[in-house]
Amino acid sequence: MSESEQFVDYYAMLRVIPTCDPRTLETAYHALAKKYHPDHAETADVAKLTEVIDAYKILRDPGSRAEYDLVYARTTGFLFSEAGDGLSEERAAMSDAEAHAKVLHYLYKKRRDAARDAGVGQFTVHEMLGCSDELFDFHLWYLREKGFIQTTEQGTLAITIEGVDHVIATSRTVLKEKLMIAQSGESAEI
Q: What is the pTM of this model?
């Protein structure tokens, strides 16, 4: 991929994190290819299927993925782990925090849209994260222990009151930061 081309976030397209392993990448690809394939009338989308195939072709090849990762890092600011840079654990923690926020926002929206039927199947959440089984178990453990999610009587996942409060508090903080950045940008122009 040359930088003169329009940047496309292949990781977001495949719903995986940029540091995912090849197995996770392949699992995400197969799930999305199946979802968008014309054989599935309810979710068929040939354009999205083509995008998913193109993304997977780039990311499955180690050489083209390495080239793409350079462009991805320059465009998004994402920091890939360098061997011996001492930051890989910090990056893993930030990646985990992003996954936790993604799950909570998804379950929050589900609760707001369907308060009486707010549960989401674990498979759906796992597929959304596109992570290994072990990492998914870690995310569920953390969110449950914090009291942010619970397993419903039907065996689905749902956000708790503590989880809703956390999402709201986090959203307020992010909004305040964005307002401060916008205001500092305006004052710098004066």
A: 0.54
